[in-house]
């Protein structure tokens, strides 16, 4: 295989896997995200983030981003099941993924670009969770607090990115999906009529956010600009 043939293969693999990830994301959001646990649901949910990870790996994406995508897939699989243990596994997996993204964003970013006002808004949001979220988490209080710090840290680190607007939007979409999930888990009744729209919204924000992080910050240059 010549160098040009290898480049073409890697490029085609990357784009094919991104498309596969988006297609399965749409399938999961349309037909599975609001349903109870099942083997099929777990299988469908596992595909998108693994496909994004393969897309990154195939074309030399940053190892920290690929690692974050793989850990997110682990979290997806865990959260597709019921119970406290799967929830904790998912929480740890996603928390570690956020940590990897934070490190990567700071490595390629410029702290001087961080807007003090935007940073203050994120800090205010983190503080606000002590009033509307933490009192409702009971014995999960400590891990949820740590998770809040990590998702807000990812938002702050994303603000340092230069000419990678799609990755910044992806990071904040990820934050928004986590916020909806926390409301759904700790503040919303299981019988609420908002459960289904919340599930669809959080999955859409999450899947598109993760794809945007890969496309916008996973490579030496963004795959496209907005």
Explained architecture:
With 226 residues, the chain is an all-alpha fold. The protein has one domain. Helices cover 76% and strands 0% of the residues. The protein has helices at residues 3-31, 39-58, 63-79, 84-108, 116-132, 141-158, 165-186, 195-217. α5 (116-132) packs antiparallel against α6, α6 runs antiparallel to α7 and α7 (165-186) packs antiparallel against α8. GO terms for molecular function: hydrolase activity. The chain crosses the membrane at residues 12-34, 46-75, 87-106, 113-134, 140-159, 166-186, 198-220. One of its GO terms (cellular component) is membrane. InterPro entries: TMEM86B-like.
Q: What is the 3D shape?
A: globular
| Biggest sheet features | none
Low-pLDDT stretches are none
Q: What is the gyration radius calculated from CA atoms?
A: 18 Å
> How many separate helices?
8
Q: Which percent range describes the beta-strand content? A: under 5%
> What string, H for helix and E for strand, traces the elements in order?
HHHHHHHH
Could you tell me how far the N terminus lies from the C terminus, measured between alpha carbons in angstroms? 35 Å
Relative helix content: over 70%
What would you call the quaternary organization? single chain
- How many structural domains? 1
The structure class reads mainly alpha
Give the number of DSSP strands: 0
Average the pLDDT over all residues and give the rounded result: 94
């Amino acid at each position: 295989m010549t160098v040009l043939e290898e480049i073409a293969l890697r490029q085609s693999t990357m784009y094919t896997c991104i498309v596969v990830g988006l297609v399965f994301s749409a399938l999961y959001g349309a037909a599975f995200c609001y349903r109870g646990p099942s083997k099929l649901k777990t299988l469908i949910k596992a595909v998108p983030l693994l496909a994004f990870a393969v897309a990154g790996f195939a074309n030399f994406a940053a190892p920290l981003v690929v690692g974050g995508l793989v850990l997110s897939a682990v979290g997806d699989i865990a959260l597709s099941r019921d119970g406290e243990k799967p929830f904790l596994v998912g929480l740890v997996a996603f928390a570690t993924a956020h940590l990897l993204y934070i490190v990567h964003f700071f490595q390629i970013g410029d702290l001087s670009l961080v807007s003090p006002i935007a940073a203050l808004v994120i800090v205010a949001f983190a503080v606000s969770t002590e009033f509307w979220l933490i009192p409702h988490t009971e014995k999960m209080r400590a891990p949820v607090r740590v998770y809040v710090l990590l998702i807000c840290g990812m938002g702050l680190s994303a603000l340092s990115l230069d000419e990678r607007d799609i990755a910044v939007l992806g990071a904040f979409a990820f934050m928004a999906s986590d916020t909806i999930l926390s409301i759904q888990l700790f503040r919303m009744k299981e019988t609420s009529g908002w459960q289904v729209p919340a599930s669809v919204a959080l999955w859409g924000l999450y899947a598109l956010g993760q794809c945007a992080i890969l496309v916008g910050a996973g490579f030496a240059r963004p795959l496209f600009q907005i």
